[in-house]
Amino acid sequence: MDLILFIVFAMFAVASALGLILQTHPINSALSLIGVMGSLAVLYLLLGAEFIAAAQLVVYAGAIMVLFLFVIMLLNAGEERNPWKAPVVAYIGGPVVIFLIGAFVYLINFTLPPMRSVSFGDFTGGGPREIGMAIFTKYLLPFEVTSVLILIAIVGAMVLARKEID
Amino acid sequence: MPANFMPSAAEYFRFAPEIILTIVGTLVMILEAMTGDRDKSSLGYVSLLGLAAAMAAAVAANNDPGLAFQSMIIVDGFATFFRVLVLGVGMLTILVSTNYLSEAKANSGDFYALILFSVVGQSLMACANELIMIFIGIEISSIASYILAGYLRDDRRNNESALKYFLMGSFATAFLLYGVAWIYGLTGSTNLGEIRTVLSHGTAPTAMVGISAALMLVGLAFKVSAAPFQVWAPDVYQGSSAPISAFMSAGPKAAAFAVMVRVFYTSFDSISNQWEPVFWIMSLATMVIGNFAALQQRNIKRMLAYSSIAHAGYVMVAVTSHSAVGTAAVMFYLASYCLMNIGAFAVVTWMARDGEKFVEVDDFSGLAQKQPFVTAILTVLILSLVGVPLTGGFFGKFLVFKAAIDSHLMWLAILGLLNSAVAAYYYLRVLVVMYFREPGASTVNLPPVAGTLRVAMLVTTLGTIALGIFPGLILGFATQSSTLGK
């Protein structure tokens, strides 16, 4: 059962990811991205990471995607040109992608020690309680310092969007 | 909840520079709102004081070295050196920019706050002992730099530069993060020391570890503009305002080198036979591309950008040597590089004037007759960039190539020396233009050298000379702290 769920959603994630980069209309790409995020959330859930699965849905598939769609609509972005026509993409990009995927498949299949398949319910450390404990004890400093990062993003948005200097 | 998670006073003390900078940065933003329409240069002085206080805190923290916050950060001589360096870069940048911003009518507290926060990120990178902290530090520093690159919003060149920098920078960070994820999967830790322990057992598959290291190297090589990830640098340095180019070519680069040295010398120490050849090729490619492309440039900012790529190549040579001497050479070289590069960009800032109309090498023609002070400053800095004896640049190169020879990288040292000979050509062209050409349209009506800019020029020039005559000033400390805390 776990395996079937995994295969279904993993295939869906890969298919949506391909759709994301192959479609030429930004809205279609954005919708494919929701597919990627959603199926990833299911995969997290299968691994026992409930909190991350929920956060993935609420934050990424929800909030961030809505912003993406807003931006696309506000910019009124139309169809993209087909990038495959550029010789660099067609003759270098394609082979490089195939080579990299092949290399990763080879490495994962043949150099990593064989791993037991994961079944639902094995891992129970993914709830909000455990994550809260980790964030406020061991990872306290990164958590706090992230606020500086967010502050910068806010200041930056303000600086770049201001009407005029002076 | 276990009590030992409460940070002790000593741990706060080790983290004090970043705390001070964040507080001052926030304070500057509040003051910006309070000062209304008045001149904002005073906010620059507040930021300078904040940076000075943080520098004092960084030096004081070195008296009690050690880990802090669940070994998220580490304070050792190496971290202190780079903290002081990036704080100094921040101070010099503010000195270079105040007058420029006033002339562009763009002086505002936001600018100083962004510089301060960016320095927070670089300072975190210098003392981070965890891949997560490294990532957050790099992001803080980079996002602030992206915004600063596009700070003069009405200048199209700024927009282009910011957008290019942002898109390529985010792409590079994604590589870094992917590498971090792989390493976590392979070792079960993001702590540099723990990764080192796990990898030294040799149980993790080497090919996978190599790929993770390579992915992280892509991200870091982008930040230091090492080949083949250097293409962004000329466009971004050319498009940004000159004071910001000075900042970007010094602070973030030095901090990224600190991260590179710490990660590869600590965590990936046991697979050094894998990454040393890669560094060998990258350092050579960086030097060659930087120097030969600089030969073609007419725009002085673009030329300095390629020269900064070449300098990154020399530092990579020292990193490749993978020894205590090499670490000390990295530290010394970056210190002298930051001084001379910011100094050179300070002169460009003065020369370019409002709207940056005069940024060609030929615009410097006849400067020696019109403005002997600035000519003297630029002469010293350029001689240092070439690597003429009695300047900091000479000792930097000397140490770099000595480290390479000590580690039996004979060919790299020879090719590097040939490269610095090529570099002399395009640097000396600027001197020829200044001394032997008749003054042109750009050198009449030269503006006065503003007080803050004069201070920045003098500090960088005197610093360069001091490092050339008394290299022991910082070399002793660099050698002492070249064994990283592990």
Uncertain residue segments of chain B:
none
How much helix, percentage-wise, in residues of chain B? Answer: over 70%
CATH-defined superfamily of the largest domain in chain A: NADH-ubiquinone/plastoquinone oxidoreductase chain 6, subunit NuoJ
CATH topology of the largest domain in chain A: Four Helix Bundle (Hemerythrin (Met), subunit A)
Q: What is the helix tally of chain B?
A: 20
Largest sheet of chain B: 2 strands, antiparallel
Count of discrete alpha- or pi-helical segments spanning 4 or more residues of chain A? 6
Mean pLDDT of chain A: 85
Tell me, what's the shape of chain A?
Answer: globular
Strand content of chain A: under 5%
Biggest interface reads: A-B, 29 and 48 residues
What would you say the CATH architecture of the largest domain in chain A is? Up-down Bundle
Write the layout of secondary structure elements.
The complex is a heterodimer of chains A (166) and B (486).
Chain A: H1 2-22, H2 26-46, H3 50-75, H4 87-110, H5 128-136, H6 140-161
Helix pairs in contact in A: 1-2, 2-3
Chain B: H1 9-14, H2 16-35, H3 41-61, E1 66-68, E2 73-75, H4 77-103, H5 109-127, H6 131-149, H7 156-187, H8 192-201, H9 206-223, H10 232-239, H11 242-266, H12 272-295, H13 300-321, H14 324-352, H15 367-370, H16 372-386, H17 392-406, H18 410-436, H19 451-469, H20 472-480
Helix pairs in contact in B: 2-3, 2-5, 3-4, 3-5, 4-5, 4-11, 4-14, 4-19, 5-6, 5-11, 6-7, 6-11, 7-9, 7-10, 9-11, 10-13, 11-13, 11-14, 12-13, 12-18, 13-14, 13-17, 13-18, 14-16, 14-17, 14-19, 14-20, 16-18, 16-19, 17-18, 17-19
Give a concise summary.
The complex is a heterodimer of chains A (166) and B (486). Chain A is mainly α and 166 residues long. Chain A has six helices and no strands.
